[in-house]
Amino acid sequence: MVPAIALSIGGSDSGGGAGIQADLKTFLALQVHGCSAITCVTAQNTCGVSRVDALSPEALTAQIEAVVSDLPVAALKTGMLLNRPLIEATAAALRHLQVPMLIDPVMVSRAGSLLLEPEAIAAYRSELFPLAELITPNLHEARLLSGLPIEGPLDVERAAAALLKLGPEAVLIKGGGLASLKGHDYLLDRRGSGQWLQHLPVETPHSHGSGCTLGAAITALRARGLPLLEAVQQAKQFVERGLRFGLAIGAGQGPLCHWHPLLESHG
């Protein structure tokens, strides 16, 4: 058996709910072999992050080169890149690759906390977005990158159009940061084909890692050869089921469940 191979470039979550750990669980659940390149190591659990240590750009580059020099990566995604040197190292290592690239601009948490150094934002715009097949900002990130206010659906559509001008082939703005848009995401591509995609909103406190998981699911399905729209639609269904089986572990916000197809098939 020769499975499709996907690569995740991002941070390690010691609590296992998000980041590289969530991505690899998602790849496995969708029958894709997952590889990783770690950008930073976080000390975190369900209650929050207590420490972040960045790896050197050289260490990151070595990981990416080790993977792509040996394994036929069919699609990849980026997550937490933290600072400008890591963003620039990632872009330099990926520039020669001709595979679908999903750039998740992990800048601001859904709660509004800044997750990277401010000077890194310009590097996303200039270095990574032009390489991307798809970027997947949340509402806070879309506001920050577009410079536009976002209070409703029309604002989301305007922001997506502005972000498309930064170079990606397509933009998916995740609407979960607004109560009225929970479960609604807006996809816009270079053909000007914009559409709202939705799944049933799931009321659960255990949603840690949902953004990482959505991006990883899209990446896995693109690695398996699905067209982008179909990959996004199926990835949203995967996340919806994961939220329905959210894991009530720890004292804080637990993660969504990545092995839910097994739970469903065995009742």
Descriptive overview:
The chain has 267 residues and is of the alpha/beta class. It has a single domain (5-258), classed as 3-Layer(aba) Sandwich (UDP-N-acetylmuramoyl-L-alanine:D-glutamate ligase), CATH 3.40.1190. The chain contains nine helices and nine strands. The chain has helices spanning 19-29, 57-68, 84-94, 120-128, 139-146, 153-164, 210-223, 228-244, 260-265, and strands at residues 5-13, 33-45, 48-54, 75-78, 101-103, 134-135, 170-174, 184-189, 194-198. Strands 3-2-1-4-5-6-7-8-9 form a nine-stranded mixed β-sheet, sandwiched between helices. Strand 5, helix 4 (120-128) and strand 6 (134-135) form a beta-alpha-beta unit. Helix 1 crosses helix 7 and helix 3 packs parallel to helix 4 (120-128). The longest helix has 17 residues, at 228-244. The radius of gyration is 17 Å and the shape is globular. The model has no long low-confidence stretch (mean pLDDT 92).
Question: What portion of residues is helical?
Answer: 25-40%
Q: What structural class results from the helix and strand content?
A: alpha/beta
Total separate domains: 1
Shape: globular
Q: Could you say what the CATH architecture is?
A: 3-Layer(aba) Sandwich
Radius of gyration: 17 Å
CATH class descriptor: Alpha Beta
Beta-strand percent range: 15-25%
Give me the count of strands.
9
Uncertain stretches of 5 or more adjacent residues: none
What's the name of the CATH homologous superfamily? Ribokinase
> Number of helical runs?
9
CA(first)-CA(last) distance: 28 Å
- What pattern of helices and strands is seen along the backbone? EHEEHEHEHEHHEEEHHH
> According to CATH, what is the topology?
UDP-N-acetylmuramoyl-L-alanine:D-glutamate ligase
